[in-house]
Amino acid sequence: MGSGFAKMVNKAETLYAIVGASSGLGKALVKDLSSRGHNVAGTYNSSSSTINGVEFAMKCDVTNEQDLCNFASACFEHSSRVILVYLAGLSVNAFAQKLDLNDWDRVIGVCLTGAFLATKAFLPQMRASEWGRIVYAGSVVGRLGFPGTSAYASAKEGLKGLTRTIAKENAQKGITVNCLELGTLMPLPTHTEAIRVLGKRILPNTSVIQQLV
After folding, report:
1. Is the Cβ–Cβ distance between 108 and 155 less than 8 Å?
2. Rounded to an integer, what distance in angstroms lies between the CA atom of residue 69 and that of residue 42?
3. Alpha carbon of 72 to those of 65, 90, 123: distances in Å?
4. Less packed terminus of the chain by CB within 10 Å, N or C?
5. Is 152 part of the annotated catalytic residue set?
6. DSSP label of 212
7. pTM recorded for the entire structure
8. pLDDT greater than 80 at residue 183
9. Which entry of 16, 44, 136, 152 is annotated as an active-site residue?
């Protein structure tokens, strides 16, 4: 997998822009990519102390359009070839009849609206350079449905519609858009292995990727 992917993504020229890099999957992906010599930039919500091995890190509220525009500008100052990886997430567990509307809005804001705002911020430069890669972290929760996850499941399914639409709008500009449907029990190293194929147009031969839209 490594040699073929290297041909698609030139380490010296390409920057991974990871939104949500300070914990969980984002933190693991930063560590994995930087250890392989890739250039990485990341955002954090409260503390950058857990982000190591990046070109730069920026504090970013993913529901704030200007914050994401500032991050996009900084990334394109570093490189004209940027891979946007949106990993910011939030879940509030409650049965629908007990879920507060503010909590619904928060989850949708971080998981879905934030992905849209990040995409909107990065697309102009990607379109101008006629190259770009966008990947979202989806979830089997949206497809299968689990009690207490109505907001999270709705947001993750919404990412699929966003993926298909943005992909069709930008296919002629050399931009690919994918949504990885990640399983809840998959270990972080497996997640990062899946995301490393986002520069390819062909599905990798691995059973751990349940869907690459």
Report:
1. yes
2. 13
3. 11, 22, 9
4. N
5. yes
6. B
7. 0.81
8. no
9. 152
